[in-house]
C-alpha cells in the first residue's frame, strides 16, 4: 500500500494515480485516474471518485470495496482466487440488498440452498461473508454481524486410508509418470501445488528447500538414497520425453503442469491401476493422509511434516484414518475338551 494509505494508488508519471479494476474501468472508462501530486490532494480526489468507483449503495458496494482493498492484500494466490469465486456466488444473492436489512435468517436460508449443492462450498462462502461483515463493522457500515451466529455444516471427515498392500499394487500397475509422482508425494507429504511447482533451484545440497504455498514457512526435506534416486529418475524421464524445464515435474516442452493437466495424468494412471490391478479408487490427496498416518505410526512429528500451523488441522488427516486394533479375549477357561 502506498503512503497515501489507499489500495491500488501508485505514484505514476508525476502524480498519484488510482488503478481501476476491470469492473471500475467499465464504469468510468479509464484504467488510471489522476488523483493529484500531494497526499492530501490524492485522498480528497479519491473520496470524490469513490461514489463512481463503488456505485452500489448497499451490499454491492461493500463487496466492491472488499474486492478492491482486502482480497489483493491476502498473501496466498490460491486464497485470492477462491475468495473471488466465492464472492461471485455471494453477489448473486446479496448484491442488491442493504447490509442493515440482512438477518441471521437470510444467511441461514442461503446456507440451506447452497448446502443442497455443496456443504463444503457453503462453509467457505459463509466464512467469507462473515469476514466481509467484520470489515463492514470496521468501516462503520454495520454495528452487528448478521452472519456471526450462523453455524457451518458439520462435514464427515474422509476416512479413506490407502493400505500398504493397495499402494504397492497401485505403484505396480499405474503409469510410470504417476508412479514417480505418487512415490514423491508419499515420501514428502507435500501438497499438490507445492509438488507441481517444485523448482530445480530448490534441490539443494542438503535436501529439498521449501516455502509452502499455504502457510509460507521455510523447511528442508533432507536427502536420503531413495529420495535422491527418485528425483534423478524424474529428471531423466523429462529429458527422455522432451526437455527439462525449471520445475521438477514438467511437460514435454518444459513448461509446468497446471491443475487440469495434472488431473488428466492422474486419472489416466488411476484408471490403469483400477483396470489392471483391480484396486479401489483413491484420490491424490489421500496419499497426503497416508503420509500423515504412517508418519505418526513411525513416531514422526506429523504437524511439522505436513507444515500445519494448527495441530487441529493435522488431526483432520489422522483421526478418521487410524484403524483401531481390537484384542480378542482369552476363552481357555470356558473350553471343554
Your description of this structure?
The protein folds into three domains: 1-53, no CATH class; 57-155, Orthogonal Bundle (DNA polymerase, domain 1), CATH 1.10.150; 164-318, hpI Integrase, Chain A, CATH 1.10.443.10. Strands 1-2-3 form a three-stranded antiparallel sheet. The protein has a two-stranded antiparallel sheet with strand order 4-5. The longest helix is centred in the middle third of the chain and has 20 residues, at 119-138. A hairpin with a 2-residue loop joins strand 1 and strand 2. The protein is globular, with a radius of gyration of 26 Å. It has helices spanning 22-28, 39-53, 59-69, 77-94, 104-115, 119-138, 164-173, 176-188, 192-196, 225-241, 259-277, 284-297, 302-306, 311-318, and strands at residues 9-12, 15-19, 32-36, 207-211, 218-222. The relative contact order is 0.07. The chain contains 14 helices and five strands.
Q: Which structural traits does this protein have?
A:
single chain; 337 residues; mainly alpha; DNA polymerase, domain 1; hpI Integrase, Chain A; 3 domains; three-stranded antiparallel sheet; two-stranded antiparallel ribbon; 14 helices; 52% helix; 7% strand
Summed up:
The protein has 337 residues and is mainly alpha-helical. It has helices at residues 22-28, 39-53, 59-69, 77-94, 104-115, 119-138, 164-173, 176-188, 192-196, 225-241, 259-277, 284-297, 302-306, 311-318, and strands spanning 9-12, 15-19, 32-36, 207-211, 218-222.
Amino acid at each position: 500500500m502506498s503512503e497515501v494509505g489507499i489500495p491500488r494508488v501508485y505514484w505514476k508519471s508525476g502524480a498519484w494515480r488510482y488503478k481501476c479494476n476491470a469492473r471500475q474501468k467499465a464504469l468510468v472508462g479509464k484504467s488510471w485516474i489522476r488523483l493529484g501530486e500531494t497526499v492530501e490532494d490524492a485522498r480528497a480526489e479519491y473520496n470524490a471518485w469513490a461514489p463512481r468507483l463503488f456505485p452500489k449503495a448497499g451490499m454491492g458496494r461493500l463487496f466492491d470495496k472488499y474486492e478492491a482493498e482486502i482480497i489483493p492484500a491476502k498473501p496466498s494466490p490460491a486464497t485470492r482466487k477462491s475468495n473471488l469465486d466465492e464472492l461471485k456466488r455471494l453477489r448473486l444473492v446479496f448484491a442488491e440488498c442493504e447490509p442493515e436489512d440482512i438477518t441471521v435468517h437470510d444467511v441461514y436460508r442461503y446456507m440451506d440452498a447452497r448446502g443442497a449443492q455443496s456443504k463444503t462450498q457453503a462453509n467457505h462462502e459463509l466464512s467469507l461473508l462473515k469476514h466481509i461483515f467484520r470489515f463492514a463493522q470496521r468501516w462503520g457500515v454495520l454495528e452487528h454481524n448478521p452472519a456471526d451466529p450462523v453455524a457451518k455444516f458439520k462435514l464427515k471427515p474422509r476416512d479413506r486410508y490407502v493400505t500398504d498392500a493397495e499402494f504397492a499394487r497401485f505403484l505396480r500397475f499405474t503409469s510410470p509418470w504417476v508412479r514417480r509422482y505418487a512415490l514423491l508425494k508419499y515420501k514428502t507429504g507435500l501438497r499438490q501445488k507445492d509438488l507441481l511447482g517444485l523448482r530445480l533451484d530448490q534441490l539443494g545440497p542438503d535436501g529439498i528447500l521449501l516455502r509452502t504455498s499455504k502457510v509460507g514457512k521455510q523447511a528442508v526435506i533432507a536427502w536420503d538414497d531413495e529420495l535422491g534416486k527418485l528425483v534423478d529418475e524424474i529428471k531423466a524421464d523429462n529429458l527422455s520425453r522432451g526437455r527439462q524445464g525449471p520445475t521438477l515435474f514438467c511437460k514435454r516442452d518444459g513448461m509446468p503442469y497446471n491443475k487440469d493437466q495434472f488431473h488428466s495424468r492422474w486419472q489416466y494412471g488411476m484408471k490403469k491401476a483400477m483396470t489392471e490391478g483391480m484396486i479401489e479408487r483413491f484420490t491424490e490427496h489421500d496419499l497426503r493422509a497416508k503420509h500423515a498416518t504412517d508418519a505418526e505410526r513411525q513416531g514422526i512429528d506429523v504437524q511439522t511434516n505436513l507444515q500445519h500451523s494448527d495441530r487441529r488441522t493435522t488431526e483432520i488427516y489422522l483421526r478418521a484414518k487410524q484403524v483401531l486394533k481390537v484384542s480378542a479375549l482369552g476363552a481357555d477357561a470356558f473350553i471343554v475338551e
